[in-house]
Amino acid sequence: QGQVVESGGGMVRAGDSLRLSCTTTGRAFSNYTLGWFRQAPGREREFVAAIGWSEPTTAYVDSVKGRFSISRDNSQKMAYLQMKSLNPEDTAVYYCAARYRLSARIMDRSENYDAWGQGTQVTVSS
Fold first, then answer.
1. End-to-end CA distance of the chain
2. How far apart are CA 87 and CA 67, in angstroms?
């Protein structure tokens, strides 16, 4: 599997926006399903959003629907997680994950990804 690199984390205030970026190396970028997961202190890693490889299929956890948007630009080999109306509950380390040609039906499960980035911290103050 290729390597995954995230960027774009930081410290913001409640109501602010932030955009995370993710790229992979290895096989053709367009063939990777990409997911975003997050882990807050003392909590398990949870699914946030994912985007499929073969169709512009997306999925979101309920808590971010309407606030977060995942997208990809295959020509730039980049995926993005646009986060709006951030609140302190969004504070976590955010991880990008990739899996070659992963089915969109199961792209919300962390165990189905085999390449992970190192994580980027997002901190939202009230």
1. 39
2. 10
Residue spans of alpha helices (H) in 2-117: none
On whether the CB atoms of residues 59 and 33 are closer than 8 A, the answer is no
Strand 10-13 relative to strand 120-125: parallel, antiparallel, unpaired?
parallel
For the chain, 126 residues long, give each residue's pLDDT as a single digit of tens. Answer: 679 999 999 999 999 999 999 999 888 999 999 999 999 999 999 999 999 998 779 999 999 999 999 999 999 999 999 999 999 999 999 999 999 999 999 999 999 999 999 999 999 999
> In terms of Cα–Cα distance, which of 43, 37, 34, 93 is closest to 61?
37
